[in-house]
Design goal:
With 49 residues, the chain is mainly α. It has one domain. Helix content is 73%, strand content 0%. The longest helix has 30 residues. The mean pLDDT is 75.
């Protein structure tokens, strides 16, 4: 990722970085949730509806 100093030097790129950060965070959270629920389903197969 770009250093924050470079980002703050170019304010027009801050929106782009924010969007990228948001997408990255969503990807990380969704992958973590998928892994967690997959583990839970593997441990308790009866819970699958």
């Amino acid at each position: 990722m770009l250093p924050y100093i470079v980002v703050f030097q170019y304010p027009e790129q801050r929106k782009k970085l924010r969007k990228v950060l948001k997408i990255r965070i969503i990807q990380v959270i969704s992958s973590w949730f998928l892994r967690y629920f997959a583990d839970a389903n593997l441990r308790n197969p009866t819970r699958i509806t």
